[in-house]
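Exercise 7 asks you to align residues with tokens for two separate proteins.
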Amino acid sequence: MVQGDQPPHDDNLFRAFANALYATVDAPVTWFREKVVEPNQKKYPWYHRQFRRVPTIDQCYSDDPVCDFEANSQFKRDRAVDSEILNILRMRYEDCMMYETPDHLTVCKPLWEKYKDAEEAWFIKYGDLGAYADARKAYMKQKHRIIWEKRHGPLSDQTK
């Protein structure tokens, strides 16, 4: 088709009716989106996207699947962020070891301690949950840990 040519005329009445019905429904929605919603949105790059905090799984009712889904999504985002923080701390320690090789045991010790503390905190929250972890399993793990610590004292002291 050459620029400026019109598409061939369609004599099908059903298709014409369907297109008119679609335009009747779509036109106000498209106008509202283009004229009202998009001009009032803040433009963020994808890497600065900010999600609002949602209720945690202990604040959801047992028969509220939407709240459950949001809590699981929040849990997965938090787990990804915490894992990346742990990865960054590990890379900092490894870079320090490579750079400070003969004296790395003394120079990099603060980085190692910070990494080990973060690793322990990550394992306390997410460890032993498996690949299909969700917010409810993590909440139950936290609950069981609190009960165990009430009976036997802090778990960190037991494992060292």
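Second protein for Exercise 7:
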Amino acid sequence: MAGQPWNRVNIPFPGAVSSVRMNFNSTTDANIKTLLVEKEKVLKLIRSEILQTDIRLLYELLYILNNSFRGNKTFKGLKQVEQCVNRLKNMKLDVSLQELTDLCPNRIQRGLSIKAGKCDVPSQPMLEWLCLKVLGAAQLMSCTLNRCSRAFILSKQQMKWEEFLILNVVITSMLSRLWVMFRGILVSLSTLYQQLLVFLREVAHAQPMPFLTDFSLPADMAQFLCPSDAFLLIKQPKHDSSTKDDKEKQQKKKKSSVKVKSQGQTGKVKEDLGIAVERGTNHDTDFKPFLKVVRNLTEDKYFLRGTYKADKRQKFKKQVREATTFADMAAHLEEMILWCRSQRMEKERRLLTFLRLKCHKMTCLEATGYNMQRKLQSFRQEACWAASPQGPAPRTCRSSAAVRRKNRLRTQCQSLRSRFKSSTVKTGVKNKHLKRRRRRRCELSMSGLSETGQRSRTTYEATPQTTNCDSHDDIDDIFASVGL
């Protein structure tokens, strides 16, 4: 695409005569007049104050958000819009269109040329060069529209997340205005291109001077653009029904005014104020039967929806069991994924999408000649579970990351259990040793107490006898000293 002549910023100007003299008549006059009118529309849109104001606002926002929003996706989308605007300025389309105005004869010159039969008009190389400019500008406008739409969606997404609400309101309003104005420029460029081709054929027929030899100009702008952008060139029909209704209302008003005037001439107009209608209002009405009917209808609706989903799942399971190859399985999975998306069954859709990827891999292996019947049997179980995920998932239906995570947790738990067991064993051995030591200490303490008791008893028994003997001896000595 970069090698195409229309995709250059500075398209080389043809080194040929920019104007030629040819026969001039009323049809040529009409073609030049319509060409100048379409050219003025494009220049008016490009030079409009509203567009320039929004472009200045875009520059100001990018200047302010350059540091704080450098990694933001909305900011990157705005930068892409800025690049398209800068490219439009650099290609100087308005200057080229102004040169076309200078080369075409004005109204007075066209009137004199009709009488003379000759006139100077832009040459074929000049018109072809201008057609390339218009094609490049149209492609740039379509790219700018896509960039504006993408930045608008990103800014709207941030608004849903409740982030920078005021800033995103300003950005979305600016982008919407830019989109509308750039679409208007694209539509006006399309009509200008059509008129350029009409005038180019006439000039080439009178003075053939081909400039483009390797590139042929498309017959229509819609053929040049992609289908999504070509749809923008179709002018939406105006509200014909509303205009018809307005015309009918105006006609009715006219008829009614005529009738009123005629009646006013004959006599006074009697206004019909209507008749009061008595309606029997019973405030004691019971609404329970009506509510019961509504409740029954809603219950029947949900019941029918549940039965419909159950029937669809049973049908899918039957198709899966009857599938003999992975290619048939892939077709059934694709159909079920679309149905789950329509029913907003996100969990089932994700599981079936995962199985569809596996099924494509198995289909490739099956096409090379491998026997995949055992895999197909296990795959049937996975597909049946994914259609109605209840209970634990099959091992093969789990993702590899989840399996690795579970194995890692299992090994960690096992290591913790082994550590706990070893610690309990060690503490048990220590407790046994402590109990044995305590028992020995108790036995030793008991034996020591018994020996000391026996010793005290023997000393106790020996000491009172000696005391008695000594006491008797002392008394005898006392009585002997007295003389008794």
